[in-house]
Specification:
With 92 residues, the protein is an all-alpha fold. It has six helices and no strands. Helix 1 (3-19) packs across helix 4. This is DUF3572 domain-containing protein.
């Protein structure tokens, strides 16, 4: 996956996360981010890695996110690896 593709997928994953009322509060609590941070850091690859890391905490979240974004589930950790410059997190 190319850097640009990973970046776009991560931004889409952030939008998906924000749309999930049952998940966004947990993300904010888990990371200490605020609503303002969501807007201000939406383009920051490190922040987006945190978004993907949070989604990767739960297999069902990965599956739901991938389905809603119309990508294969493996694209979520793939985007994380590319954005994190090879820092792999394992989804399973």
């Amino acid at each position: 996956m190319r850097q640009e593709t990973a970046h776009v997928l991560a931004i889409r994953a952030l939008a998906w996360l924000v749309s999930q009322e049952s998940l966004i509060d947990g993300f904010l609590a888990h990371t200490g981010a605020s609503q303002d941070d969501l807007r201000a850091q939406a383009g920051d690859p490190d922040f987006l890695c945190g978004v993907l890391d949070y989604i990767l905490l739960n297999d069902q979240w990965v599956l739901d996110c991938a389905a809603d974004l119309e990508v294969i589930p493996e694209d979520v950790p793939g985007a994380r690896m590319v954005l994190g410059r090879g820092d792999q997190r394992h989804w399973t």
